[in-house]
Amino acid sequence: MRDERHERAMSSRIYTIRQLTKEFSVTARTLRFYEDEKLISPGRRGQTRLYSSRDRARIILILRGRRLGFSLAEIREVLDMYDGKDGELAQMTHARKKFEERIQILERQKLDIDQALRQLRDGIRDIDAALEGKPRTPWPLFFDQENIQAVPSRPFAAKP
Length: 160
Description:
Blueprint: H1 2-11, E1 14-16, H2 17-24, H3 28-36, E2 43-45, E3 48-52, H4 53-67, H5 72-82, H6 88-131
Helix pairs in contact: 4-5, 5-6
């Protein structure tokens, strides 16, 4: 009985904009923007926005999606799935596909980052050797001359 009351109390909890901005380290403008974009729909008491547990859960999903690189349109699609609207199976299949696409993009970015880290570490090794008076690698120190690649204008951008 107590657990049931606790659950009901938690699900009906109301949050202020100040509480949520502090909890999630976002600005009030960010939360208002999400409201403008119809991603959350806080209630109001006069001019004060009152956020429900549902709004809070949606904010968690929005911030997680942004951190993973999803666009707001993609996040909206996932949120729609959580709303349990008609066609739930199709929406879940679509969300799964979006997640797989994001995984592929992140894996490509990880490879790019790993390569950049290797090149920087090689550069540090070459610089340290030069500082110790050891034979230097021809300039530029940090490029592997045999495997030199063009530097993309956005080195960590998603590849098509």
